[in-house]
Amino acid sequence: MKSSFDELKLDAVTRRFAGAGGAAFNALSELTMTIKRGEFIALLGPSGCGKSTALNCIAGLLQLSDGTIMLDDTRIDTLPPEQRGFGMVFQNYALFPHMTVEKNVGFGLRMRGVAASEMAPRVAKALKMVQLTGQEHKLPGQLSGGQQQRVAIARAIVIEPPLILMDEPLSNLDAKLRIETRAEIRRIHTELGRATIYVTHDQDEALSLADRIVVIKDGAAHQIATPQEVYSRPANLHVARFMGYRNVLELDVESEEGGRVALSGPGIRLTGTRMLPLSGRRGCVAIRPEEAVLADAGTTNTIAGRVANVEYCGRDSLVDVLTPAGTLLHVRSARAPQVGDPAHVHVPVERALVYPVT
Amino acid sequence: MAAAGAPLAREPFDRTLLLVSPAALFMLLLFVYPFVYGLWLSFTPKEGGALANYTHFFTTDNLWPTIWTTLRLALPATLINVGLALPIAFKMRVKTPYQRWVTTILVVPITLGTVLIAEGMLTYFGPKGWLAQFLQFFHLYDGAIRLTHNYTGVLISLVISGFPFSFLLILSYITGIDPGLARAAATLGADPKAQFRHIYLPLLAPGLAMCFCLAFVQAFSVFPSAVLLGSPAGPTRVISIAAYEAAFEVYDYSLASAIAMIMGFVQFVIVVAVLGLRNLFYRGPMIGGKG
What global pTM score does this model have? Predict the structure, then answer.
């Protein structure tokens, strides 16, 4: 077990499960990536996509069906979890209910045979880091959800692991606490200077925390990139849909020129930016509601329609515009129009992303 | 808000509580009354003062040692049952294709009565039983095999009939422990042995104590197998045999009641001692955090 490392290499990591009727299916197929020290990686995807499987494979709680995991020059995928020495924070915290906060946090040190005299200051330091000083002698059952969560983090970091694995650690907290703890997790990550792999289904969490995001769907990594890249240039339509491109229109391709694509459909003429080579005469344009605006008639690159619904959201409103052809578009708008008003939805050419039809 | 000092309104009587009455009546008629009657009976001996039966019991050479005889059978049988059931139940806690089969096979003896088990054991373990014939045929063991009509026979029968009970009880306790706790312990460096010692065992301890008590009470009241498989005149003259003789051979119901009371008292002492130990351990939910 080492406390530091340079690179964690996942090579074609695959995990198969026996599915219904005995047929095997890939919960995770051929995940290949390299994680450097100090990096914060988010595994992002809808529930059941295989992101927790990936995390459990790295932790050693699940065995690989194929592939290898290397920590620098050591192959670790054949080691049991207790010999990998990664800290893990579980979704339901998995605190030991019969041990006090202090004993919970000290457990990893005890398993490593750390002397009692050395243990106490290290436990105290970890508890201080998660701001739980003074709660040492409580049992987990006496703590609130947020406090339990922080005990779980303290328990994982006290052993000073090279890698911290977090499995949706915030999903059981309320909205306010979630945002606070999120900042806390990022702070602790920076303070420790180790690597963190963080599983979440929440794109905001992934965007705000991670240095790199791995978007997973159906067991496969669809994009591995920085938050900016994933947010503004999704690798494919799946990623786009998941990253909040709520408007996806399938249209005819009229012409392509230098990355710009002219598209048309019933009552729609639109120019967009090509993201992937198009095959065939049809293409899908993906537009984020925040990047479309309600414009005046006569503006270029617009789609005309009528306001079908307005949802007030505080800072702005979410406006649904129904085109004559029956397509519903979602637009974020600072001003709230009346239902039934004619509307023109404008999208900048570079923010109308065109993908092949899948 | 009620005015200061005004008495708090009383909770209205919850009429659904009346649904308990049939069960309460049942307890009263079939448990409390016979017990109190027996207690009273034990203090009204045929002759002598109120304590005559008890003095008789503790001064008669074929009565008071039955306590030890019974303890000598019941305690080892209980320890063996709980001790065997724990590792097997631990292995069976994860769902595997074999789990159902193994569990079924282990539990079958619970459906057989003690008499049936005794019958089977007499043919199987007896001096000319299958086991003896098998061992002698293959010359694995040529000495005389005496596994029935003695202490061993009764002990084996107590294990056969008592094991499934302990096993099922412990299995239900073990499966109630969140397996995520052991996984968490593993990521913190605990090998399977340490996981068992630091996570499962402390969380199981109260359940094991409970299981011990129930298994012990069951074993302490051994009667049919002590008669059929033991030597009821000697080493397996258990306390229930003494009570039976007093009641149905001497027709001294008063003495029999006194023996039953002593039997109950011994069980009570052991159970209280074990449950007292149980309080030393954590008792509470066996999951860590939000489920």
Answer: 0.80
C-alpha A148: how far from chain center: 23
Q: Are the C-beta atoms of A307 and A321 separated by less than 8 Å?
A: yes
Q: What percent of chain B has pLDDT over 90?
A: 56
Q: Using the beta-carbon criterion (under 8 Å), do B284 and A159 form an inter-chain contact?
A: no
Cα–Cα distance measured from residue B160 to residue B190, given in angstroms and rounded to the nearest whole number: 35
CATH architecture group of domain A245-356: Beta Barrel (2.40)
- Gap between the Cα atoms of A33 and A16, Å rounded: 19
Q: Is the ipTM of this complex over 0.85?
A: no
* pLDDT number for residue A1: 55
pLDDT of B259 strictly over 90: yes
pLDDT value for A44: 93
Instruction: Report whether B37 contacts B253 (CB < 8 A).
Output: no
Cβ contact B57:B262 at 8 Å? yes
Domains of chain B, start order: 40-278 (1.10.3720.10)
CA–CA min distance A109, chain B (Å): 8
**Contact A111/B202, CB-based, under 8 Å?**
no
Residue ranges of E strands in chain B: none
Q: Cβ(A181)–Cβ(A173) under 8 Å?
A: yes
* The residue count for chain B: 291
Residues B247 and A228: their CA atoms lie apart, in Å, by 89
- Which CATH number does the domain A7-239 belong to among 3.30.465.10, 3.40.47.10, 3.40.50.300, 3.50.50.60? 3.40.50.300
Please determine, for residue B104, whether its predicted confidence score (pLDDT) is greater than 90: no
What is the per-residue burial (b if ≥16 Cβ within 10 Å, else e) of A116-126? eeebeebbeeb
Residue ranges per domain, chain A? Answer: 7-239, 245-356
Q: What is the Cα–Cα distance from B106 to B76, expressed in whole angstroms?
A: 20
Instruction: Name the residue among A82, A86, A87 with its Cβ closest to that of B191.
Output: A82
CB-nearest partner of A86 from B187, B191, B199: B187
Indicate the residue type of A156.
A
